[in-house]
TrEMBL record:
InterPro entries: DUF5675
Origin: domain of life: Bacteria
UniProt name for this protein: DUF5675 domain-containing protein
Pfam family name, one: DUF5675
């Protein structure tokens, strides 16, 4: 399975659309692009493997592997990138502004259900991050 994340960068945050085979799964919010600096920037465009991981803090979630010069990049719920993210990607049901969205837990649950089912079928799951066409 290959998920495509097309992003628009803004000074206050990064907004995206996450799709599987042309079908939108959810929107996303991230920190603004700040040269891939740890804790303050979204991650660079590229192709990354997603794996299922469990922690006491987050329960089952998706980890983005092999991000250059970064580690611990996750998909997890958040509705305000600047206040709640440190480089991770938050699925949201609706984008409400640069780096802001609503109903993140609903979108995160929908994404995990789709991806975990693919993993249970033995599929590898990859995330391809691209700039949106209109940028």
């Amino acid at each position: 399975m290959e998920l495509i994340l097309r992003r628009d960068h803004h000074p206050e945050g990064t907004n995206g659309s996450l799709c599987d085979g042309g079908q939108q799964i959810c929107s996303t919010i991230e920190l603004p692009w700040r040269e891939n600096q740890r804790m303050v920037s979204c991650i660079p465009e590229g192709r990354y493997e997603l794996v299922k991981r469990y922690t006491d803090k987050r329960g089952w979630h998706l980890l983005v592997k092999n991000v250059p010069n970064r580690s611990g990049i996750l998909f997890h719920p958040a509705n305000d990138a600047l206040k709640e993210l440190k480089g991770c990607i938050a699925p949201v049901s609706k984008v409400t502004g640069p780096g802001k969205g609503t109903q993140s837990r609903v979108a995160d649950s929908r994404l995990k259900t789709l991806v975990f089912e693919a993993m249970e079928r033995g599929e590898s799951v990859f995330l391809i991050i691209q700039k949106a066409n209109n940028v």
